[in-house]
Design goal:
It is built from 8 helices and no strands. The protein is mostly helical.
Length: 154
């Protein structure tokens, strides 16, 4: 999946429009190449911490808002699917304390790790069953691999 930092780039474009600043002017002011500035403004590249401060200062954008949007873009990239949007979460994010935000991110990471483990074990199971069938094991062999002896890994 391609990375997209659309929320941050939209905020920067709004600041540029408000101050009537071109990409070239912004790039020059924050000491970036034109291409790097263009990539950030179009959501193709992440706004890094060292660059975020001068951009926010120059465009009069709240740095905490930009940090929030960067975090949201990151969450959207890591945990979103084409059928799922994190937009409903954004409505509540600003009302959460920093501690609750960290807890929520921690929960999402744990759930993602659990889901990855489930997917990995499903792939291993499929591979084992395919190998058994290819070796002529058939149903009896797959029944042996699916039943486990206590204390023995599958």
């Amino acid at each position: 999946m391609k990375r997209s930092f659309e929320l941050v780039s939209q905020k920067i474009r709004e600041g540029m429009a408000r101050k009537n600043v071109s990409i070239r002017e912004l790039a020059r002011h924050v000491q970036l190449s034109y291409e790097d500035a263009r990539s950030i403004i179009h959501g193709k590249r992440r706004l890094s911490e060292p660059v975020a401060s001068p951009v926010c200062e120059y465009l009069d954008i709240d740095p905490l808002e930009v940090e929030r949007l960067l975090n949201f873009d990151e969450l959207n990239h890591r945990f979103s699917s084409p059928t799922l949007s994190l937009a409903p979460m954004d409505r509540f994010w600003r009302y959460l304390t920093e501690e609750h935000r960290q807890d929520l991110v921690c929960l999402a990471r744990r759930w993602a790790a659990q889901d990855r483990a489930v997917r990995r074990s499903a792939k291993v199971s499929e591979t084992t069953q395919s190998a058994s069938a290819a070796a002529g094991g058939g149903k009896a062999c797959s029944e042996l691999t699916s039943s486990s002896t206590p204390g023995m890994p599958r």
